[in-house]
Amino acid sequence: MKLVFATNNEHKLDEVRKMTADKIEIISLADINCHDDIPETADTLEGNALQKARYIKEKYGYDCFADDTGLEVEALNNAPGVYSARYAGPGHNSEANMKKLLSEMEGKENRKARFRTVIAIILNNKEYLFEGVVNGSILTEKRGKNGFGYDPVFVPDNYTESFAEMGDIKNKISHRAEAVKKLSTFLLNGIF
Ligand code: IMP
Fold first, then answer.
1. Among 73, 55, 179, which Cα is nearest to 128's?
2. What one-character-per-residue DSSP string does 17-51 give?
3. Whole-structure pTM value
4. pLDDT tens readout for residues 101-120
5. Whose CA is closest to 166, among 186, 187, 145?
6. How far apart are CA 138 and CA 102, in angstroms?
7. Measured CA distances, 151 to 56, 58, 85, 146, 174 (Å)
8. Which label site among 7, 109, 113, 137 has the fewest CB atoms less than 10 Å from its CB?
């Protein structure tokens, strides 16, 4: 089976390829000669993941999957959520995003938050969704240098280190790992 993963993130491609072993050939956007800026204009993670997968299926004809991730903070009515990448304005500036988050959280006692990843896949003209969640809390200041995005301000439940202070453990317990695990189990079982 050949499947396109609609991402430009090499790290994510690698992760999924490892988890699906040799049973499924995961091909990249570059492999199908797609250099488009794929639209992500929905107002939910599910909507964005589906939008990206449908775009590839419709324009290029390949069975395809795509993911979208957001940080949902309880005291902020689940913001930044689907807008996590551009919380502080257009672009992907993690420093500015974290600064805004810490300032919005100033004085808040409820620090509960979760990362949520949704993967949408289109297979034989049917659509399926998979979700991965990791619960945790928002620190009052950044800690750690590893990872990316909001990692320095997020501590998962049952750990004391922030995601940015962890090494490989993050990739085993993360929201994305959980969603990818569900996807690979589904694909490897072949029940579709
Ligand atoms: P995307 O869906 O992977 O593009 O992620 C959207 C935004 O969520 C990113 O720009 C990051 O700011 C944030 N994000 C996604 N995954 C992670 C993660 O594992 N750690 C920290 N931040 C993340």
1. 179
2. HHHTTTTSEEE-TGGGT---------SSHHHHHHH
3. 0.93
4. 999 999 999 999 999 999 99
5. 145
6. 8
7. 30, 35, 13, 8, 11
8. 109
* Contacting residues for 169 by C-beta, under 8 A, at least 6 apart: 159
Residue 68 known to be catalytic: yes
CB-based contact 86:71 (threshold 8 Å): no
Backbone angles phi, psi at 127, to 5 degrees: -110, 140
The best mutation among 84, 169, 170 to test binding of ligand 1, ranked by most ligand atoms within 8 Å of the C-beta, falls on: 84
Residue bearing the CA closest to ligand 1, atom 5 = 69
Could you read off the pLDDT of 78-105 as tens digits, one per residue?
999 999 999 999 877 999 999 999 999 9
